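Bench notes, bay 3.
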Amino acid sequence: MAWMIDRRNVVFGLLGLPAAAMSGHAARPGPTLPAGFIMGGRGRVTTVLSGDRLNLDDGTQIRLAGVQAPTLGTGTARAEPLAADVSNALGRMLVGHYVDVHLPTDPTDRWGRTVAHLVRADDGLWVQGALLSRGLTRVRTFPGTATGARAMLELERTARAGRLGLWAHRHFRVRNPGETWGDLDSFQVVEGRVVDAAVVRGTGYLNFGRDWRRDFTLRLKPRVRTLFDRAGLDPRALAGQRVRSRGWVFPTNGPMIDLTHVEQLEVLEE
């Protein structure tokens, strides 16, 4: 789906842009791109396909690293709320502009798209930072695209506290563990208290209820548990702690998210 102005959603899109952008002047740069990326060149944005996908003038399709926008409907799948609004806002932000492409550790996804952070060349606007700070996307990282996650999570927290963009809509609310049966086969942010934590045959489990056959669980396979140990996060020490996790919810006994990297889990202060 190419970007186009949706008159019904134009107000939402304009609210997501600074006043300078609406007046035709260069936008004031927002958050700064974190360090740790590899410069991958420059291109002009020709088409926005969704709130996190776009095309450059050389034919490269970019998937924005580290963020998840509301999904547009495909086939029989219905679009998520505000999907067109976010796509339109990204189009107004980028179509016709040159962007610098900054690559994470793993710069290609399984569909062959280039996964990257983008910085608008004319004014230095970090695209992911702008989207997150306006509440237009949620943080979603993978093991090879987690660089800068701490900065992105902080931007998301601020937008969520201000109920900006997506965070004002019930569909995108942070879930509590008890309601995740209704969220199977979707990406979610889930927050709650770890009731029990254990390691069984090398795999870590963070259980959010007494019945592990029915209640929500976070799983850390042996390789991932090693990563957590290196980061000083022994899963067994998290019993009784409040945590916020994010990932794909799927059914294995109860609803479960597989943690694949440390940045998926935030230990919350009481």
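Next record in the batch:
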Amino acid sequence: MESTREDRSIKSNGRASPKLAFCIFKYFPYGGIQRDFLKIALQSIKLGSQVRVYTLTWVGDVPNNFELVLVPVSAMTRHTLYRRYSEWVRNDLAKNPVDTVVGINKIPELDIYYAGDSCFEEIAQNQRSKLYRLLPRYRHFSKYEEAVFGIESKTEILMISNYQRKFFEKYYKTSSARMHFLPPGISEDRFPPENIEALRQDFRKELALLPKDKLLLFVGSGFKKKGLGRALKAFSALNKNIRRDTKFLVVGQDTRTYFQLLTFCLLISKQVSFLGGKDNVRDFLFAADLLILPALDENTGTVILEAIVSGTPVLTTENSGYSNYVVESGMGNVVSLPFEQNALNKSLEILLKNIDKEDWVKKSKDFLNQLDVTSLHKKAAKIINSFSVKKEMGLNAEN
């Protein structure tokens, strides 16, 4: 990166186009937060903003109108790496300022934070040991979360999970005036077309499924957090006849060694396939009979709503942020907290016994006629653009 950058501002109505800096630790095409970031950034450009991106690594194509800055820091531990990243970015922004700094990850001194992650403090207090809370890693992430949500912070927060709100208010007393709630942002290609049954059958043939076979689908990058271990155990507990006629596909980019070993231990390795990250998740959702996502912790679980939109029922857990849509639509079942493996096992068997794709698609359409599920990225970009304009005019972002 050059030490000085050419000013590429475009005049519109006598005002320079806003310069935005997006801060994201890592970008790859298959992460839900990563996809949201990219769509918000591209929408911001459509509104006339210039976009600079600070990241440690970028996998995939870079949009032509992005100024990509690969932050040249390294460290042995993740929390040290992220601290060095934030310090480097702060120093670079002092030399090459922008109008608005948008965080996709939690770091200090953000103007706006896109809350794609769950509350760290809630996880640390209830899913980690006392010893963990004595480690430097805990202190780092707790401090950085407080820098965004703490009562002293002025960062505006784009919230996508109402479920998480209570945790931020509990630990940080975050002002409701700083939290701006966004609707979901589901791509319209997830909606079932008129020929969905033909598309479904064609792709099932590509997957070598027989007409009597059921397809159980897991989608997500972050296998442990999203509950793949729980899902595999539930699959292994199925009635033998149901399990024999069910194929379990795992779509997502993550280290799979432990989970592959688990399939061998559970004697289900022949029926479980790990496919890695895929660009055609839509095809898998159309073809599936059931999506399972029994997360240990999940801010939203966008794929839950994507499945509902596509006409596929969902089995998930109460602490998945979008689990409320499963309840409201009647599209599947939600396992309540505290989590019990046996409850998940029973729900999986019941749902796989009662698969009627045509009925699920009809139920999905009836539900979605009443709901805005597509405008997250446009509304986020509008809030960011509005903040930049008000900041330039010296107005408080709340005005």
